Fold Two-component system response regulator KdpE.
Amino acid sequence: MSTHAPQILIVEDENDIRRFVRLTLQAEGHEVHEAATLQRGLIEAGTRRPDLVVLDLGLPDGDGVDLIRDLRQWSAVPVIVLSARSAEASKIEALDAGADDYLVKPFGSGELMARVRAQLRRHRAQTPAGESVLRFGEVEIDLARHQVQRAGEPLRLTPIEYKLLTHLASQPERVVTHAQLLQAVWGPGHREDTHYVRVHMANLRKKIEQHPAMPRHLLTETGIGYRFVP
């Protein structure tokens, strides 16, 4: 049985970086397509339908964040941002727009490929329709019954804790910003209430993690949000 080589689109205007990323990806067996502008990136994404997009934000004909927003109107393809912008505000803007991960330049080939593997794995492992149980570590979430167990014992989660856990667990390996969590769990009007998330996440970790001070599954992305690692 033949295996499908993942197709990855690089949208990057710097030739040296685009070549470095292309060679790194090809060495891992990926099929690579390239674009040097925002408009060409959108065309390539629409015609190639890649399995993943690697995107620079500083493009000659526009901001990569606008490409993400446009892409998210019709596609859920994972997007990894590569950018020299290291400020938290820039990361939050890209992630809130729909990016899945953010890598600051300069970066190494090993870190890039780890992020690529994680996003491809997450995209392939999206919960299939009809599957109602999520498992990680000692924890089992029964989505149909709204029940959570750890090591076979029932866990008593508050409604907020349950919503937080299921929202993160349904998007493994993806960075979810405070604003995205507040919108999903508390609803509109709470975008600035990040302390809500911190308090409830601390309580959730005490129930889910074996060592809450050193979590393995509910990881903090400092100043940005959280990432769930199965």
